[in-house]
Write a structure and sequence with these properties.
It is built from 16 helices and 15 strands. The chain is an alpha/beta fold and 429 residues long. The protein is globular.
Amino acid sequence: MKEIFKSIIVRILTLEASILLKRHKPKVIAITGSVGKTSTKDAVYAAIKNNIYARKSEKSFNSEIGVPLTVLGLPNAWNSPYKWIKNVMDGLFTALFSRTYPEVLILEAGIDRKGDMDRLTRWLKPDVVVLTRLPEVPVHVEYFSTPEAVVEEKMKLVSALKPDGVLIYNNDDVVIQSKLPEVLQRKVGFGRYIETDFTARKDRVVYADDQPIGVEFEVEHMGAVHKVLISETIGTQHMYSSIAAIAVADELSVPIANTVESLLSLSTPPGRMRLIPGIKASMLIDDSYNSSPIACEQALQALKELSYAKRKIAVLGDMLELGKFSSTEHRKIGVKVAETADILFAVGVRAQQIAEGALSAGMSDKNVFQYEDVARAGRELQAILNNGDVVLIKASQGVRAEKIVEEVMADPLSANKLLVRQEDEWKQK
């Protein structure tokens, strides 16, 4: 009964959202990929909000129900049938009678299973598609026959572009590069390692009192160079998101100087490489929103490149939905940990393979700790932390690694503002 009710609600909200788009005709920016969708969405919004009336997806509203909710400007009703019915009524009124509407919609487009993108693109035709990254072993591959099938499903969004639409893509991604010959639309590249339309250079971590506080880099476009500063984060993840945002803003005729200034207000999304002060004068890198092999490798690389850390501690949980690739990918991450961190906390059944990979690569068993639950891991991490430690916390959503972050953050009263999954509905799970 619950699934039937959900199916009916999705169909009604999708119809209402389709009507609304036909009435107001906003420009639609649709963002997809296996990593970086939410960060890129937030960066695009920050880049253009001072110049264009825009709306973005809330949190990670990228599903078959999340996208129409964003289009209609409605909240998630969670498990309340009455609130869903209210959403339907409010959505109908908005679809038929609204007088004003954003000029630009910034939407995430995610998939879990085959056919998800087909259902979305039946009614959503983007003006701009942003491809973040398509790794060789993507998250959700468990529900597809091959990793290539995941890529093909995501690329259907590109095929749904309007005739005059533009594809903005990560030029450093080899999988995306392999698909570009099949794409006939206008293309704009962004990247760091290969010269392209928008190229980042000279990226570096910014420190204050030997603690990381952000990342700074330069972006070159058509011979002009612009300096960008993103606070409260490290690593290349948000650098890529920001370059993509600058490319989108340029496509919308927002001057790059304005975009760079607007990005100073960018607030790193909770659980995505966010720097949070920890207890005992430690620093936490909160990447607890989700995990996949490529995202975990990126996070570990950012940890490896940090200066001034007394000890580097990697707290890594299960990476879910990897299917037959699970064991191999977890062991690969363990090998990377041995090259990167001084101490490993492996949390979860699958993460035991991370520990085994680290040990096989020469990490001392005195520095490898394994746990089945986050509560004990959080308590024991709290006990060993020292002044100057830097801690990376990363795991798939089902592990709930944000509980570990809350255990060791200097100001746990700010958890509701800084951490992921702080809604009552999540805390009851």
